[in-house]
Structure formats: structure tokens, C-alpha cells
# Entry
Amino acid sequence: MSLPHDSVLDRFLRYVVIDTQSDPTSQAQPSTEKQKNLGRLLERELKALGLEDAHLDEHGNVYATVPANTDKDVPAICFCSHMDTAPDFSGTGVKPQIVKNYQGGDIRLVGDTNQVIRVSEHPDLKDQIGHDIVATDGTTLLGADDKAGVAEIMSATQFLVRNPEIPHGPVKILFTTDEEIGRGADKVDLEKLGAKFGYTMDGSTVGEIENETFSADGVTITVKGVAIHPGTAKGKMENAIKIAADIIARLPKDQAPETTEERQGFIHPVGVSASMEGAELGFIIRDFEEKGLSEKETLLKAIVEEVMANYPGSTFTFTVKEQYRNMKIVLDRHPEVMENLLEATRRVGLEPKVTSIRGGTDGSRLSFMGLPCPNIYTGGHAYHSPLEWVSVEDMETAVKTIVELVKVWEERA
Ligand SMILES: [Zn+2]
# Structure
């Protein structure tokens, strides 16, 4: 068979027109069967490149291996991207538009002229003069998150296969489903994958590498008040609704999502239900450090105890449940994962900028499942919106980064 067009742009354009939106209301994995349409195409393309073990499994994940071509003992490295697009905005009927040789200024989208990618809101556009930019027509999202990553891994794979003189260890490829609804790592079979370390291709601005996520706990507080007929309640009633309100009123205002940024954590109430007899309060606690998490939990418990001292007939429970942890804890145990990535980034002419994510990612899940996994730039921007755009030159830089990274691992083995 003759191979289809195969620049990273050609691949990207081929993948974004396939609707792969995931669905948080579905219990199935993949949450939408249509994600497999892209999976089947990728399986075929990987096989056409000669990767014999390429396959799509029942959960929609695609696995493949570029076998090692060196005698050195190089650890197997995985590159991972997700195939689904976010439920936040339509991914049906994507009509990519290419602005060739961008010369600055705002980009008005042709299918909905109210949609404008403004330089004032997207300052990264200033670094794109002379580049080709892909956007949508304004009626759908683009799906650069994360089909830019998919196209880049595919292009790097093709490059390694067609340039066998470049020595490398085993390179494992993993394309997942349902990342956007937080389930991307659920059905990944790490034993089958057989990689020692991984990299997700799911970042944004070139040069930016993410090696940290929040650490996260949930806290549930239950309160049992003293219920009594309101007509004869004097000196006796302890209304759990008022106890819950007292607790919330005392939360520190400078440790809330709405008052924090960058590396600051927070205590955030996410649900309250209460009657006179009893109340239940749900919280999420976030911090980059475990120490910060436990300090916030100690503070929250002290607030509850202080309030409860005013209600001697009432009782409470305080339960902490671990949700996820900062992947840096895992990555710090394997410093070569980041060191090699920083070296590869410099080799493609970029100054690496290491940043953190105020949330959790599949990379953090995979890291704690046993696959240490920082996140690499793809060149995409303004994710989950009709203003999403990606630079073709930056996608090419990301492809080169993958190739250089594979070379660094081999050289240093
Ligand atoms: Zn993504």
C-alpha cells in the first residue's frame, strides 16, 4: 500500500476531523465508541510503518513498540497522548483553517466572525511571526489537545523507523481514551506496555515542561447536633445548620481557590447538606507539598474544634481521604527522566522552563502506577475552546524533541 501524506501537519489534519469527544456521563470505557475510530486509524498507520505489535484494545487504548536497534541496555521509554477531546465544546465537524506565514495581528475565524483570537488575550502569538497557524472556523474546538501530541508521536515514530542509523532503545507508544474526563489511566495495562519511564505529550507552549501536579485530599466532616422542638428549645437546641455555617464562616479567606495562584494551596468547600439534627460538609484540600496538605487539614480540624466548643451537646467526625499526589515525588526518585528531557529540549534550541499544574493529570496517575511521566509541550494553545490554535513549526519542534530525547537516553545508557 502507498503511505498517506505524512508531515506532522498532514497527520494532524487527518486526526482532528475525526470526532473523539469523551462523555463524563457514560460509565463505559471508552466513554464513547467513536474514540475507537481514531484508534483504528492509528493502529493501521503504525502497522504500515512496520510496528508489528501495534494494536487497539477493547478499552480503546493503542499500544505499539519501535524495537531497539542498539546492543546497549537502554530502558524502554514510552510516549503517551490522549485521543479524546474535551466535553466542554463541540468536536463534531471540525474544519481546520490554516493561516500561512502569520504576520501578526488578531485572527478572525471564518465560520463565526464573533470568534477572534486576539493578540492581547493570546500573547504567545507574538512568538509565531512567519509560522503557519492552524485554528478552527470558530464553530468547534480544534482538538490540538491532544491530537497535536498524537501527530507528533506518530511523526517521530515514522522518523525513527525511516532513519535506522539513529541508535535507540525500545520506544513504546501509548494512545489513551477518556483523559479529559479523568479516566485515561484507568484501563492502561502497564505490564503489557513494558516501559520503564514515560512522557506525556500533552503540554502547550514550546519549551514548557510540567513535572509537578497538586497533591490532593478530600475531607468529610459530619456533625450531629441536638434537635428539639423549637417551642421548648431554650438552652438546649444545637442546630447543626448553624454549626455548619459557623465552620464555613471561619475558613481562612487567603487559602481559597479564588485568592491563590501558582504554588499556593487551598481549602475549598465543595458541598454542604444540613438539617437541625445533622450536617455533612465536603472539602477538597490542595497543595504542592504533603506538609502543606497536612497543615491545611490540621487548620481545618482546629476550626471545627473551636466551633464545636460552643456546642457541648453536639459531636463531629473528621475523615481525610487521599485523592492523588504530586508526581514530582515519583520523578525526584528518577532524576534522569527530567535531566534527559532538559537536555533534549536544549538540543532543539529551546531554553526549558519547568512549571507546575494546578490540578491532576493522567501523567500523575501513571507516575504513581509505576510509570514516571513528566509532560512535554505540543505547541497547542487555548485548549477546550473554539479559539484553540497550534503552530505547525512548534509541532515540528516537538517532533524533534522526541527524537532527540530518544537519542539522549541511548547515549547515556
Ligand atoms: Zn490534554
